[in-house]
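Structure representation:
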Amino acid sequence: MTQYYLEEDRADDPHYLPSIETFYVEEGDLDFCDEEGCCLPAGFYWQSCMPGCLPDGEPSGPFETEQEALADARDGME
C-alpha cells in the first residue's frame, strides 16, 4: 500500500497529510474477501485514508495500473 497526497501541490506543506492509499489485489486474495466469500477482482484500487486511521469508505477500482487508480482519485481536483 502506498499513500499519496490528494492535492500534489500541497505535498510540501507540513500540516497537510497524505489522504489517498493505493494497493493491488491479486486474484483470490482472502484479505479482500467478505464473510460470504465474495472477493474483490484483481487490479489496483484506491481509498481515502489518513495516516494512523482506518480507510474511509469502500475501495474504488479495479484499475489496470496504479497511475490510473491515482488519476481517478484525483479527478476533478485541479
